[in-house]
Amino acid sequence: MPRVRISDVAAAAGVSISTVSLVMNDRDARIPLETQERVRAAAAATGYTPNSVARGLRMQTTRTIGLVSDTIATTPYAGRMLAGAQDVAREHGHLVILVDTGDDAEVERDAIRALADHQIDALIYACMWHRVVDAPDHLPARTVFLDCRPVGGGHPAVVPDDRAGGATAVRELVAAGHRRIAFVDVDEPNAPIASALRLEGYMEALREAGIEPDPELHVYGATTTAKGGRSATDLLLDLPESRRPTALFCFNDRMAAGAYVAARHRGLEIPRDLSIIGFDDQQLVAAELDPPLTTVALPHYEMGRWATEVALGVRTPDDPGAVHLMECPIIRRDSVSPPPAAGRDPGRRRT
Question: Which residues cross the membrane (predicted)?
Answer without folding.
Answer: none
